[in-house]
Write a structure and sequence with these properties.
Shape: globular
Largest sheet: none
CATH class: Mainly Alpha
Strand content: under 5%
CATH architecture: Orthogonal Bundle
Distance between the termini: 68 Å
Radius of gyration: 27 Å
CATH superfamily: MetI-like
Number of strands: 0
Structural class: mainly alpha
Helix content: over 70%
CATH topology: MetI-like fold
Length: 290
């Protein structure tokens, strides 16, 4: 009787080697992050609160909410919001064209989008003023149509559109590149029209990125000074922006008044950007659950 013995080789236990992280652990990185954030952001901003804490409530209201200051707030936030809205629309179109189409000069146009990043804001302001002034190339033509751009809120909006466009385009481009063209083709095969495809398939995908670009352009527009100060004309109650008013207060050694205006702008900007971020988070969660 022949016996067949099956020999099983003993299993050698695997040694689980814990791969070391490239960066240090959570505790040192979090400590470094908090320290760096405190030195760069929190401590400088806290001085605004500490400086205004020495003012009485009546002094703070007089410095931060006078008629002239309220007009500057309205102009600053209004033009920044309008410019960011325009950039959201046309920045989306520009990003879509640069990603989806190949044409001569595409790389040149793509590189020109970053010019507002590299160009000094004062140079941009001088150039825009020269173009849109009454004797400028565009200004003289618009003047014949009864449209005055330089030294008006229209000129301020154009300057903010110029410096805010790259934020929207560069935020949207990677998201549009990740959108699968087959999704659009499948929706078209099922009978969906172009508007339905845009509204149901494309827009929910890049809407969070569009909100991010809008928020970045809006935040940049609120604090912009160099490109606006030349084309605005700086007329009180008409074309005077809040950052210019802060500089004017500092030149007059009115540090309390400058910090009061800065504090109001800081609080308003914080809540506006918080609302935009909450809307972005809500839209991302909605897309993830759909």
């Amino acid at each position: 009787m022949t016996q067949h013995a099956t020999a099983t080789a003993p299993k050698t236990p695997r040694r689980s080697k814990k791969r070391g992280s490239v960066l240090p652990g959570f505790t040192p990185t979090m400590g470094f992050t908090i320290a760096y954030l405190s030195l760069i952001v929190l401590i400088p901003l806290s001085t605004v609160f500490l400086k205004t804490a020495g003012m009485s409530w009546a002094e703070f209201v007089e410095a931060g909410f006078s008629t002239r200051v309220l007009a500057a707030y309205k102009l600053t936030f209004g033009t920044a919001f309008l410019a960011a809205l325009v950039n959201a629309v046309f920045g989306l179109l520009l990003a879509w064209v640069l990603v989806r189409y190949r044409f001569p000069g595409r790389r040149l146009i793509d590189g020109m989008v970053d010019l507002p990043f590299a160009l000094p804001t004062a140079v941009a302001g001088i150039a825009l003023t020269a173009i849109y002034s009454r004797n400028g190339w565009m200004g003289s033509w618009l003047e014949d149509l009864g449209i005055k751009v330089a030294y008006t809120p229209i000129g301020i909006t154009i300057a903010l559109i110029f410096i805010g466009l790259p934020f929207v385009v560069r935020t949207l481009q990677p998201v549009i590149e990740e959108i699968d063209v087959e999704l659009e083709e499948a929706a078209a095969t099922l009978g969906a029209g172009r508007w339905t495809i845009f509204r149901k398939v494309l827009f929910p995908t890049f809407f969070p990125a569009l909100l991010t670009g809008f928020a970045l352009a809006f935040a940049r527009g609120i604090g912009e000074y160099g490109s606006v100060v030349f084309i605005s004309g700086n007329m009180p109650m008409r074309t005077e922006i809040a950052p210019l008013l802060i500089v004017t207060k500092l030149e007059q050694y009115d540090y309390m008044g400058a910090t009061a205006i800065a504090l109001v702008m800081l609080v308003i900007s914080f809540f506006l950007l918080l609302a935009i971020n909450l809307l972005q988070r809500w839209s991302s969660q909605r897309i993830g659950h759909s």
